[in-house]
């Protein structure tokens, strides 16, 4: 995906104007995002500039142009001094004063019909009845859309600030998560009236700029009215597609791939829609080649974009290719060493890979840049967790939540720490808060399942595991948890189905983890998780289907050499291409003579149990030579030696009379 010189300069012009427009409305994050994207565009060469001589000057030298609509331009010019005062107050975080410049509280009460008649109010108090609100006929003020947005946005931010002040201590006895933004009702009523008035006036209005639609959509999201919110947010990006805040709100509303496919045709067809689709796909944990190809095309246009490079690293991360994800984050940190965004994800990767020196360096770097950023606190918390200082880790995750209660990583990781501290009640509450922040967070759903499984509440655990598996249908770990839970509930037939799906899911990651052709992936053999195979075999044994049980036990033992027991594998067909970088059970013992470096899992507890079962089965079937061979291998492995020796003695005693008779 390449751009011509003309298109590149037009894109540069548009992004510069977007930065200015978002900054004028104090949408700082959207302005920063657009500015970073602008900075990632390659500098135009002299030849490119020469090729654009025939273009209008606005394409070559973007200027801070006034509003092209004459009605809005006149209003903005008339209220310029008040707008500059309001913006200065917003920048100084005096949000109530900022809103009062254009929308004083007394005027708002009149405009929204919330003025109370004094005599009626007095009578109501005497009789213990609520006050009567009189309808108001006062029209909305004639101010520009830019100033109106700034005033109403200041109201919303003021309400959020007061909500944080009224909230109790994180995870305290009174922290129920029920405190709301009291300004939302007023802003919602005002915008409803404003949009209704525009519909009545029809063509007499100035065209909408898209920002008030964005604000109304944001308010509707906070009021849990997702359907109406999506409608206004889509309208917002159609009117002004360069406000990344609106795209992010749409992304947060989309919970399934079907919703993304449904909303895509309604969006404007430009590069912003292309960026949104790639980002939303990654948020939905899609790892197909299309997403990787989209990112590659976008990086051809914005080669140093920190946002797109972060998405590329997260694509590897969600594909379980942690080595490649770590390399991408490391390169990103080299390009933007002061950027803290998404470093909490990087710290998760370093934690899983057990790279303590790198995690220590990252924690020190974040602390030196800004120790009071939520991302910094999460990184430091992960470092203490790796050191097994779980109390200190919880302390830093709490600090991250004090700075930002919507910090998803902090809620989820704090739940993990409480599990380590055996505080299941606090762990469940942390995971529930993470789900409230983002219902797509499969780690929180999985954590809830694990915690309830520890409490031996398997029905609850199964429900949460299924939610996690629904979000990550191609993650074998999710289906393995579902299958194990079903096994404990005695539902062996359903458990077998879930565990077979876990094997198929791992084969999906085998084929999709390297969509970019990374060199960071390791060689993958035709190998399955022996623990899963053992569980399937045990359930078949309980169902008294010995042929299937024997086939899966043999397949489990075959994983020591990275091979399969037969060409197709029992009950699975040819569709299983299995990952070779997941060595079965964590408690396995490595190192038997049959294990080859880089091939298979070697001897594990699971394969030894399968070998013991096969030895007993051979004894029952009077195949004493096979039983003797398997038991001898168990003695060599050093697993269940005493029972193996007993089997050897019994097998040889049965074999001796047979050999005497033959002679």
Automatic annotation (TrEMBL):
GO cellular component, one term: anaphase-promoting complex
Keywords: Cell cycle, Cell division, Mitosis, Repeat, TPR repeat, Ubl conjugation pathway
Keyword Oxidoreductase on entry: no
Cdc23 domain mapped to chain residues: 10-313
Species lineage: Eukaryota, Fungi, Dikarya, Ascomycota, Pezizomycotina
Region (Disordered): 563-602
Organism the protein comes from: Triangularia setosa
TPR repeat residue numbers: 374-407, 408-441, 442-475
The protein, known as: Anaphase-promoting complex subunit 8
């Amino acid at each position: 995906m390449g751009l011509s010189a003309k298109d590149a300069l037009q894109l540069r012009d548009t992004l510069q104007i977007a930065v200015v427009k978002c900054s004028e409305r104090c949408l700082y994050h959207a302005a920063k995002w657009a500015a970073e994207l602008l900075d990632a565009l390659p500098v135009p060469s002299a030849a490119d500039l020469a090729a654009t001589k025939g273009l209008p000057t606005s394409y070559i030298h973007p200027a801070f142009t006034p509003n092209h609509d004459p009605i809005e331009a006149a209003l903005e010019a008339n209220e310029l001094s008040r707008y500059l005062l309001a913006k200065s107050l917003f920048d100084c975080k005096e949000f109530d004063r900022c809103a009062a410049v254009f929308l004083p509280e007394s005027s708002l009460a009149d405009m929204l019909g919330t003025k109370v008649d004094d005599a009626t109010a007095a009578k109501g108090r005497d009789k213990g009845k609520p006050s009567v609100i009189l309808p108001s006929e006062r029209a909305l003020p004639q101010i520009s859309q830019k100033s109106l947005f700034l005033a109403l946005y200041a109201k919303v931010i003021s309400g959020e600030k007061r909500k944080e002040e009224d909230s109790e201590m994180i995870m305290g006895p009174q922290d129920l998560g029920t405190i709301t933004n009291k300004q939302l009702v007023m802003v919602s009523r005002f915008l409803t009236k404003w949009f209704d008035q525009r519909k009545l006036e029809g063509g007499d209005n100035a065209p909408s700029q898209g920002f008030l639609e964005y604000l109304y959509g944001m308010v509707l999201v906070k009021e849990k009215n997702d359907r109406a919110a999506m409608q206004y947010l889509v309208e917002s990006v159609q009117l002004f597609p360069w406000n990344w805040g609106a795209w992010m709100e749409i992304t947060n509303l989309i919970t399934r791939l079907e919703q993304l496919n449904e909303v895509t045709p309604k969006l404007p067809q430009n590069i912003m829609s292309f960026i949104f689709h790639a980002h939303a796909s990654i948020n939905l944990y899609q790892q197909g080649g299309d997403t990787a190809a989209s990112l590659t095309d976008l990086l051809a246009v914005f080669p140093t974009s920190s946002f797109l490079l972060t998405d590329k690293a997260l694509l590897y991360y969600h594909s379980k290719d942690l080595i490649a994800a770590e390399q991408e984050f490391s390169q990103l940190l080299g390009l933007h060493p002061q950027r803290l965004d998404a470093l909490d994800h990087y710290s998760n990767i370093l934690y899983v890979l057990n790279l303590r020196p790198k995690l220590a360096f990252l924690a020190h770097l974040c602390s030196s840049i800004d120790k009071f950023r939520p991302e910094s606190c999460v990184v430091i918390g992960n470092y203490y967790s790796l050191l097994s200082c779980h109390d200190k880790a919880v302390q830093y995750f709490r600090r991250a939540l004090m700075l930002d209660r919507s910090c998803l990583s902090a809620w989820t990781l704090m739940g993990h720490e409480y599990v380590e501290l055996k505080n299941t009640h606090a762990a469940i509450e942390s995971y529930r808060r993470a789900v409230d922040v983002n219902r797509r967070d499969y780690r929180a759903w999985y954590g809830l399942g694990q915690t309830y499984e520890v409490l031996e509440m398997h029905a609850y655990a199964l429900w949460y595991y299924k939610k996690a598996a629904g979000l990550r249908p191609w993650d074998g770990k999710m289906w393995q948890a579902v299958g194990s839970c079903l096994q404990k509930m005695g539902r062996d037939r359903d458990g077998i189905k879930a565990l077979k799906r876990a094997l198929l899911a791992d084969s999906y990651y085998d084929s999709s983890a390297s969509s970019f052709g990374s060199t960071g992936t390791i060689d993958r053999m035709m190998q399955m998780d022996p623990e899963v195979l053992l569980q399937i075999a045990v359930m078949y044994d309980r169902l008294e289907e010995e042929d299937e049980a024997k086939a899966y036990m043999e397949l489990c033992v075959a994983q020591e050499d990275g091979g399969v027991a037969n060409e197709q594998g029992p009950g699975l067909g040819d569709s299983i291409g299995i990952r070779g970088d997941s060595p079965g059970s964590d408690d396995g013992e490595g190192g038997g003579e049959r294990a080859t470096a880089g091939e298979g899992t070697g001897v594990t507890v699971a394969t030894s149990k399968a070998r013991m079962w096969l030895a007993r089965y051979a004894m029952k079937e009077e195949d004493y030579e096979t039983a003797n061979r398997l038991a001898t291998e168990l003695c060599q492995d050093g697993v269940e030696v005493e029972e193996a020796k007993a089997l050897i003695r019994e097998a040889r005693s049965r074999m001796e009379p047979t050999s005497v008779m033959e002679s």
